[in-house]
Target: HTH tetR-type domain-containing protein
Amino acid sequence: MVEETRAKLIAAARRAFATKGYAAASMDELTAEAGLTRGALYHNFGDKKGLLQAVIGQIDAEMLARQHAVQARAPTRWQGLLDEGVAYIEMSLDPEIQRIVHLDGPAVLGDPSRWPNQTACLRATTDTVQALIDEGVVQPVDAEAAARLLNGAALNAALWIAAAEDPAAVMVRAVDAFLRLAAGLLRAEDPGTGALMSLPRS
Model:
């Protein structure tokens, strides 16, 4: 019963937040739509902010599943890393993700880079970068620093797209820049031998 109640409230809130926005969404209306009371909302989520966190948590899980699917189809670990980042950026064109995750979420919950899901993504990206360093694909840089910069670039690109007047046009520019920035991590190829070599570090 508890899980069913939570699921009903999250579903109703997700529809309300996507169509009306967080500020305009009425707690009385969404609880009535779910066939529940405001008391059930407060008992399960504490308040409206807690409900938004739960909705974003659900959407984040779906986004992560989509990213993992994209990564799994990539022919190499490096391409998978790039494809995962691009997929995250491209998802910011989804109206629901735009409004709930990239516009209302930061306004209500604060810096997205500090959200629990971003912490989990950072660990996964760090592990991938470290594996690429060990394989000799990526330069010997600090894996966590590189992961933070890659994830930060994708996140800020998504926030930029969501707030843009022409999101589709901005996305093309953002993806191009993201890929060029990421390419800077690769080891250079010796033009004489075709072998990979480390770029000089300052």
